[in-house]
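Two proteins, back to back. First:
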Amino acid sequence: MLRRGRASLAFSFFTQGATFALLVTRIPAIQDRYGVSDALLPVFLAAVPILAGVGSVTTEQLVKRIRPSLLLRWSQPVVMLALLGVGAGGNMAELAVSLAAFGLAVGALDASMNMLGVSLQRTYGRSIMLSFHAVYSLGGILGASLAWVGAHWHLALWVSYLPVVAVLLPAALVGSRWYVDGDPAPVEDGAQGSAGGVVFKVLLPLCLVMTFAYIGDSTVSNWSAKYLKDVLGSSEQLATVPYNVYMVTTLVGRAIGDFGVRRFGAVPVVRLGALVAAAGFAVVAAAPGAWVGMAGFTLLGLGLCVLVPQTFAAAGRLFPGASDGAIARLNIFNYVGFLIGSPLVGALGDAWSYRGAMLVPMVLVLVTLVYARSFATRSDRYGGGHERPRTADVGRGSNGL
């Protein structure tokens, strides 16, 4: 059951990666289809993460009565159908409704996916969270590739989206039969949380790390192409490469990251990730040309990729009796970072310089080093990097039906 539960959850991460990439990489086409002005576009773009935050807050309350597996099972189809609605709508009101549904559902989906991932990691007794996020990156690469095909062949948005939804939606529904829910873990001596709730003061360091990580991520996704073309003088074609390189190196880093956590512990891996990411921003800021700039974006992918999965895992460890609530609350800061990152870099770039703007996320990522001890596992505190399995939890779970 655990293997099927892990595989079905991994497919859910993959599906969400592909779905989200299909939306964000076709924003220019969506703008053209609906005639959204440049002034109005930021309103639409900001509404999605804001509503996702609302969805995540709602999930924190819902999981007190409904298993996370059920929330994930039904929020994922809503996300995919909302994507199809974005592609098939006929006017701006329909676009607004589809994006609102997408935002609210994606907040519930992101939170419930990571709840189940943390629960499975606890049951396995070793680090597996990075593998789920690696599959998300793989889905993102597939979605971005399919979006490129649609743009290259000038396909209507609904024509690009329909085959993907038609394949992934029923597959996700079938796979959801094997989601594994976990019961709250017994609270160990010295644990910060209890079944009574989440102490925000204790969670705050992880919220800051999540925010800073997504400021870095949104900087790459929103500004890498412009930076390479306008600052480093690359061709328009070459300017599309850094984000793809970033996604590939994110996939590679997450694919091998769990082994590092098992061998050395979460704290050294998080510290190394922060240092590598900061080095990437420094290289980008100082790059004399496009190829050196791409080397910097490569380092960014390898460094930033470990921070978010380990932040979710750390929240589960800090609040073993209330991990679902902690993860739902932490997930809000995913969207906070996304909202802050792009406008922050843009404003600094216009007022100062884009090279200088790259130093701001560099400093913010380095702040992670201050909070690295919040990622410590129980075995880290007592010496050694290996996480020990909870034998009482093995075999625990439900198919969520």
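And the second protein:
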Amino acid sequence: MEFLAPAAAFLSLPLFLAAFAWYAMRARARGVSQSLLAPIEEIWDPISHKTNIEIQIEAERSPETPSPGDPPELIGR
């Protein structure tokens, strides 16, 4: 009985890592929001995390938004 608790603790780590790897592959394949993976990614590679934030902002930007310095367009055209 003394062997059961350490064995359960030892076997739970690979199961947790396998479940996390499965979720990571699923999130990347489906383009799921990075709410679960973002803190881990920020700790592991902060530059990549900042790049992903910039990519998300660019993806959410409306294509009809004019860039700074563009000449104003007439509404009737």
